[in-house]
Predict the 3D structure of the following.
Amino acid sequence: MIGGIIGIIMSILAYCTAAKKTPFFALPFFLLSIVAGAICLAAFVATISSATAIYYKNSVCHFRTGATRTGAELARQMNLNFVDKIMCSDTCPCENKYRNLWFDKYNEKIIGTLYQRTWAEKDNDKWVHMNFGKPDVVETVKETPQKADKLAPG
């Protein structure tokens, strides 16, 4: 309520300052702007204090949905359903150059347990086949005639 009233007063002072161009309106507008800025800065500092950030992180990550899952568990399940099942699958294959990074880190047991994925060809509807069939993207640099002239000897 108070913020709205101050906002209306500042708007009126801003209009009068622009319309009349006198210090009578400009000085109160300037001082009220400084006070409002200081209040916003104080609210910002209070909001980003480490204790507050930790409180909100804990509230989200350890919040129980229903009586079974925390917020972190719910986010992981959502990520598993909507991202991990599509990434590097037949729907959205990954480039070949990333296959070894995955293959070296995750064997069949780990990738199946963590991501419900498989290295084998798709043999059931439960797990998604890892697909690295997309050709590697090669970045090419196109030379403009001006660049070619600068690079030409002589």
Remarks:
- Residues 85-154 form one domain.
- The longest strand covers residues 64-65.
